[in-house]
Input
Amino acid sequence: MARSELRPQKTAMLVAQRIVEGINERGNQIGDRLPPERVMLEEYGVGRGTLRESLRFLELQGVISLKPGPGGGPIVRQPDGEALSTAITLLLQFENAPFRTVVEARTALEPMMARLAAERISDEQIAELKHSVDHMRANLDDTTIFVEMSRVFHDTVARGSGNAIFGYLIHALLDLIDGSAVGMEYSRRSRAATCDIHEKIYLAVADRDPVSALAAMQEHIDAIWRYEEKHYPEVLDTPIAWGTVG
Output
């Protein structure tokens, strides 16, 4: 009984892999429509239930969207970091890991991201960094803008590193430790200090100075650690749970 129950799930996963292979082989672009259900059923030699399970899995992973109605069907999408964020959250929840786990990971990873960004970042991404710093400084009394621009800044540095893993990983970690989700607040003085160090990192990256970029980001992340350890130790010790993040 157990073996027969597991087989459809395994088959659905294999079909999902074949669907992704087909996307690559055909050279499908974002927004392209995939073959209709009757064609897929014949091509993959599976039942309708298995195929729909495969498509639903790919939809959850952000690979496709399923458009209902006549003329609908699976449409290719660009996967984002949402599935990764959810997976990491669930893994950490079942490990009973606290929020400080995420802060420790940022401490280890983000300085390296800044160093690589200074070597690889595009001019367009440098402009994004500058915009986030300028917009944050012009709106220091708006907490919502502060959180949003801080996230844009760190996301841009991660993407600017030229390492796709860093880009998706920091996005997932920021989902986990978003201050608005776990009850952390920052004074205007702290927001101004954050803006200053963001500008320091931006200038180092824009100057293509990897040593200074690494040091400035290390200074920034260490300051975040000290602030949160001083003001929110109970939050850092709170176990991560899916419903409390994102």
The two ends are 38 Å apart (CA to CA). The first strand starts at residue 64 and ends at 67. The chain has twelve helices and two strands.
